[in-house]
Task: structure prediction
Amino acid sequence: MRLRRDRAIEIKTPEEFDRMRAAGLVVARTLRVLADSVRPGISTAELDAIAAREIASAGAEPSFLGYYGYPAVICTSVNEEIVHGIPSPERRLEAGDIISIDCGAIVDGWHGDAAISLGVGEIDPADQAMLDDCAAALWAGIAQARPENRLGDISHAVERSVRGAGQYGLIREYTGHGIGTAMHMDPPVPNFGTAGQGPRLRAGMALAIEPMITRGGERTVELADGWTVVTLDGSRAAHFEHTVAITAAGPWVLTDLSERKVPPPDRVTFVTGGDPDAG
Result:
């Protein structure tokens, strides 16, 4: 496979985007099943087993399992855990919890990567507002993933959306990333920045955009397991992610269930379920 690069940023052909779309759909469908499976009493290890089954049944491979020694198929980050939480049979979800589920899959050597955050049963309205505001920030960033824009336009749009929504902590230590023949590639995609700055976006680039916000401060701590990242102040966190192809027609969200190339920004179909082409 011949790679075309612009300052180390991998450029894909339309046919290669189609392969990434196949991986993205595996991720989206797996996340939909996981969202439907979240309930009080289920363990995060059980969710991991569901993800393993769904990815294997699609003929795909998990991106995360074995990645730098990571021991699971998905990341399950509960309440104050921001990202990279390791599934465990001892961690059972309780009513009122919130959980971020991050999932990646590989099809024919191409990666898809996405994350959702959702409540377990009835949750605090302030937690639900944070989830909604984090999802909105993701879509604000996606809207800027267009040829001739700059990477900073995406980062600035995410930050502006978060800052305009409430008094949230915006995580700076962890970013989105380029994606394609590897899960993590150049360029890093921060969730804060200045419009008009950074590399120029070109058709053929693919980015994983992933805002992370908290109801408290921005400082983080990595736990002794070497993976799980939590808020220093114990505040709850939200995390959403999509893999986005930059095309001449605009952003194509490869990990959204809709066949539309630019889904409307007020919906995240693999969270809400239902008919992705309705409405």
User: Anything to note?
Assistant: Confidence is low (pLDDT under 50) at residues 1-6, 263-279. Residues 14-37 form the longest helix (24 residues). The helical segments are 14-37, 44-57, 125-142, 151-165, 269-272.
